[in-house]
């Protein structure tokens, strides 16, 4: 290399280093303001806790398995979470099985209190309000309800009774979706749905309540389930692998057979006609191409909620 060339290279290199990686315009005074506004109350607003989070029709599968249950789902925009609850001496504990239970992990500590806190933040009291608000957890979409699936693992009647009682802090503030006189549905920030061992008889026949029942998606069209309306089951679910079957993997992509697609289509469209959102659990999380093909197909067919284990991937998918 001749001297002039190497000088040129050195000069270019220095220039490169001196330049910021990503240029943001404006004077240094403006830059200073942009950096320091967070210290001033004028640059916060009361309901900014979930600012910028776009809600997505995704159910946080086994939500309590996450490092931070509920909040992780919320931060990814999931509109649905799920707690498995176990009743011991009047307290509801949260976990997948008995050996995962601890004194600290309760329905109250992991779900009721955090959800109440977020809904309170979204409904601040101030002199600017001309009427009480009933905002949901998402600042970008205040009328989006949060579905809280409560999966009773211990004996249904006793456990669900305890679930109903545990909802009191949310009920007291008027934050639950309610049914009155068996006909008037008022959507609130939180919609509770009993699943697992929840007895149908504690929900279906009750005309005044603030909890709902996870309908049986695969058998919704059968005569014995003719009475299940969207006022009883806003959502109906079934296991994908048992209702539709396993996906087969082609050379480059996963494949649903025509028969599987027909099954899926008829289940989703039947639910839809009744105003019920369809949800499949036990959907493949792996391989990724199978998961993604299924997500795409389910959305194309009009499924209500996608079931996701990897919430960040789901948030990126939308
Ligand atoms: C409420 O409506 C459901 C669905 O039609 C019915 O099964 C139930 O018996 C009704 N309950 C009351 C109290 O009328």
Automatic annotation (TrEMBL):
Tree of life domain: Eukaryota
InterPro entries: HAT_RTT109-like, PLC-like_Pdiesterase_TIM-brl
Keywords assigned by UniProt, alphabetized: Signal
Signal peptide range: 1-23
Family per record: Belongs to the AIM6 family.
Protein name: Altered inheritance of mitochondria protein 6
Provenance organism: Aspergillus lucknowensis
């Amino acid at each position: 290399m001749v001297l002039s060339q190497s000088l040129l290279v050195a000069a270019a290199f220095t220039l490169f280093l001196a330049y910021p990686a990503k240029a943001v315009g404006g004077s240094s005074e403006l830059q200073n303001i942009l950096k320091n506004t967070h210290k001033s109350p004028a640059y916060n607003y009361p309901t900014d806790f979930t600012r910028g989070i776009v809600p997505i029709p995704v159910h946080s599968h086994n939500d309590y398995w996450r490092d931070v249950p509920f909040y992780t789902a919320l931060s990814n925009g999931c509109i649905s979470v799920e707690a498995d609850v176990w009743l011991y001496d009047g307290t509801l504990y949260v976990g997948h099985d008995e050996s995962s239970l601890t004194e600290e992990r309760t329905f109250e500590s992991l779900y009721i209190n955090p959800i109440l806190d977020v809904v309170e933040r979204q409904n601040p009291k101030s002199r600017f309000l001309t009427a009480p608000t009933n905002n949901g957890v998402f600042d970008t979409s205040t009328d989006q309800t949060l579905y809280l699936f409560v999966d009773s693992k211990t004996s249904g009647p006793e456990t669900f009774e305890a679930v109903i009682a545990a909802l009191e802090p949310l009920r007291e503030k008027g934050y639950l979706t309610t049914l009155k006189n068996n006909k008037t549905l008022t959507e609130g920030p939180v919609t509770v749905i009993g699943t697992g061992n929840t007895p149908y008889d504690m929900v279906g026949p009750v005309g005044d309540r603030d909890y709902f029942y996870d309908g049986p998606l695969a058998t919704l069209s059968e005569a014995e389930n003719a009475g299940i309306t969207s006022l009883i089951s806003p959502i109906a679910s079934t296991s994908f692998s048992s209702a539709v079957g396993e996906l087969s993997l082609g050379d480059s992509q996963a494949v649903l057979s025509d028969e599987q697609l027909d099954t899926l289509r008829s289940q989703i469209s039947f639910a839809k006609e009744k105003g019920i959102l369809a949800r499949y659990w036990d959907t493949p999380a792996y391989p990724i191409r199978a998961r993604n093909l299924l997500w795409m197909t389910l959305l194309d067919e009009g499924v209500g909620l996608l079931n996701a284990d990897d919430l960040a991937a789901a948030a990126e998918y939308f």
